[in-house]
Design brief:
By secondary structure, the chain is of the alpha/beta class. Helix content is about 40%, strand content about 20%. It contains 21 helices and 19 strands. It has helices at about 30-40, 45-55, 75-80, 95-105, 120-130, 145-150, 150-160, 175-180, 190-195, 210-225, 235-250, 260-275, 305-315, 330-340, 350-360, 365-375, 390, 400-415, 425-430, 450-460, 485-490, and strands spanning about 1-5, 60-65, 85-90, 110-115, 140, 165-170, 205, 230, 255, 280, 295-300, 325-330, 395-400, 420-425, 465-470, 475-485, 500-505, 520-525, 540-545. The chain has an 8-stranded mixed beta sheet with strand order 4-5-3-6-7-2-1-18, with helices on both faces. A 6-stranded mixed beta sheet has the order 9-10-8-11-12-19, with helices on both faces. Helix 2 crosses helix 3 (about 75-80). The structure holds adenosine-5'-diphosphate, magnesium ion (MG) and zinc ion. Zinc ion binds near residues 366, 367, 383, 389 and 390. Keywords: ATP-binding, DNA-binding, Helicase, Hydrolase, Isomerase, Metal-binding, Nucleotide-binding, Nucleus. Pfam families: DEAD, Helicase_C, RecQ_Zn_bind.
């Protein structure tokens, strides 16, 4: 399962949680192992779970991004049992809260929840427990409103803190908070307030779909505050949204695309050059003639249309030869936004797919992949551990996905005999036994989750078992999925399909750790049947860093 993780440390104590170094590895703690087995009846932790627990148990603030079902709850539930006092869990959905509390209680863990409708007696008991050193209460779930809006409750939290019983603050499903209109996003400010008020309390954020701007915000703030950067977006609208979002968080950002007036564009450009605007959020239109030496980061909010464009765009970072970061957020949905636009160019689609292959690649050196596009060879050893794959090398795990591929193809075949066409999303529904019965095929139903199905489909697109078929209307461009030119190899059983996935992390002990470790990690665990190369709604974080120019 793709586990994409951003560790954002606000505290000055340490850099990233991926850095062990001191005695921050709790994996060997016998208490941890014992509790895992005796309370949760779980044999082993998944790698990201362990890293997260290590981070939060050593008092660091972090965000864990992991697809639904990845096992985020355990990352705070287990530490809660190992820590003195109460873990406060902010959870936007009442049903989710109930599920968790019930499940914990069934494991004999003392957990409680408070929402607007909570019974007075429960409220009273909880408030007592919060400050009572002999109370067994370990986890307290509350709604965002409760914490943000109820002064009375906050006063009790303060008492709990003063009593030394506020163990940890957890924000579960960070993204839901904003989607449900809970006004929780501005509450990153609220998080700052919490941090100021409860400086000793580690904060742990959990989400399956952190909007990239959430990460960008913290990345920019912690890594390159007040320094120059560019964020490339797919559309004009998106660039406006991202710019507004950053501005609302106090980051000086300007927007740049063809619909911005020439006057305003030149104002923004100048402001950026003289550092009164730090981040330019732009469509690919921005770039001609940029020669600012100290661009510290280039973020692709959506993938580039080709590796060549990526190269040009990222090449704007680090011209002063100082360390800079380039990040791509990748998700399959974005491919279907780009493809109708590039398909009219002769090699447009092929270039886009090369870009996709780059994003989903399991372990090759990113810089070698870029060099190859220009017909050059860059040996891995020359990368200097300047790309994410070289920095954190992983084993490759091969997985046979023939059965799912053929199921997917059967669904497309059925659709084409009925002369209908399916979008990727409809195909996934059909495979999961959802949506119109007419789209489904007996025997193909799978319990695989969306993110894994996206990996399968991506692989099939890249291997031409399926292809995109475009439908243009005045209002929208739709990409359907239909059988591709290699489909017969799958139908006749000639081809077995194997996919390369990120496996266990290679031990890199022999190599001295780099200074200025990046604060973000993307990695893939190797244990479950869900192992995959990309996220579902999540965007996969594909990074490179260093001096992009020298990769030419
Ligand atoms: P998420 O919040 O990421 O969607 P959950 O925390 O609800 O996921 O966990 C999903 C399921 O995975 C739960 O049934 C949980 O018990 C199980 N699980 C979590 N961690 C592990 C593990 N290390 N080994 C086996 N099962 C696990
Ligand atoms: Mg969850
Ligand atoms: Zn590399």
């Amino acid at each position: 399962k793709t586990q994409l993780k951003a560790n954002i440390t606000k505290s000055s104590k340490t850099d990233s949680a991926g850095n062990k170094g001191e005695s921050n590895d709790f994996s060997s703690s016998s208490k941890l192992k014992e509790t895992l087995k005796s309370v949760f009846k779980i044999g082993n932790l998944r790698p990201m779970q362990l890293q997260t627990m290590n981070a939060t148990l050593s008092g660091k603030d972090c965000i864990l991004i992991m697809p639904t079902g990845g096992g985020k709850s355990l990352c705070f539930q287990l530490p809660a049992l190992l820590s003195k006092g109460v873990t406060l869990v902010v959870c936007p959905l009442a049903s989710m809260m109930e599920d968790q509390v019930m499940s914990l209680q069934s494991h004999s863990v003392d957990a409680a929840m408070l929402n607007a409708g909570s019974d007075k007696d429960i409220l009273k008991k909880v408030q007592e427990d919060m400050v009572d050193h002999n109370a067994s209460l370990k986890l307290l779930y509350v709604t965002p409103e409760k914490l943000a809006k109820s002064k009375r409750f906050l006063a009790h939290v303060e008492k709990m803190y003063k009593a030394g019983r506020f163990a940890r603050l957890v924000i579960d499903e960070v993204h839901c908070c904003s989607e449900l209109g809970h006004d929780f996003r501005p509450d990153y400010k609220f998080l700052e307030i919490m941090k100021r008020q409860f400086p000793e309390v580690p904060i742990l954020g959990l989400t399956a779909t952190a909007t990239s701007s959430v990460i960008e915000d913290k990345f920019i703030d912690t890594k390159y505050p007040k320094q120059s950067g560019i964020i490339y977006t797919f559309s004009k609208k998106e660039s406006e949204e991202v710019a507004a979002d950053l501005q609302s968080r106090g980051i000086k950002a300007g927007c740049y695309h063809v619909d911005v007036s020439a006057q305003e564009r030149s104002r923004v450009h100048r402001a950026w050059i003289d550092n009164s605007v730090h981040v330019i959020v732009a469509t690919a239109a921005f770039g001609m003639g940029i020669d600012k030496p100290d661009v510290r980061f280039v973020i692709h909010h959506s993938l580039s249309k080709s590796i060549e464009s990526l190269y040009l765009e990222t090449g704007r970072a680090g011209r002063d030869e100082k360390r800079s970061h380039c990040i791509i957020y990748y998700r399959l949905q974005d491919v279907f936004r780009h493809s109708p636009l590039v398909m009219t160019e002769q090699t447009g689609l092929a270039n886009l797919y090369d870009m996709v292959a780059y994003c989903v690649d399991a372990n090759k050196c990113r810089r070698s992949l870029i060099a190859r596009t220009f017909g050059e060879v860059l040996d891995r050893s020359q990368c200097n551990r300047m790309c994410d794959h070289c920095e954190n090398p992983c084993e490759v795990e091969k997985k046979d996905i023939t059965k799912l591929c053929s199921s997917l193809l059967q669904i497309l075949d059925k659709a084409s005999t009925g002369e209908s066409k399916l979008t990727a999303s409809k195909v996934f529904d059909a495979l999961q036994g959802k949506g119109p019965a007419a789209n489904r095929v007996k025997g193909t139903e799978t319990s695989a989750d969306r993110s894994w199905l996206e990996v399968i489909l991506t692989h099939m697109l890249l291997k031409q078992y399926v292809r995109e078929d475009f439908h243009f209307t005045p209002y929208s461009n739709i990409s359907y999925i239909i059988p591709g030119k290699k489909a017969d190899l799958l139908r006749t059983g000639v081809d077995e399909v194997h996919i390369e996935l990120k496996g266990a992390r290679k031990s890199v002990q022999s190599v001295p750790p780099l200074k200025a470790k990046q604060s973000r990690h993307s990695s893939h665990s190797s244990h479950s049947s869900h192992s995959s190369g990309s996220g579902s709604q999540d965007r996969q974080d594909v990074r490179g860093s260093g001096e992009p120019r020298s990769s030419r």
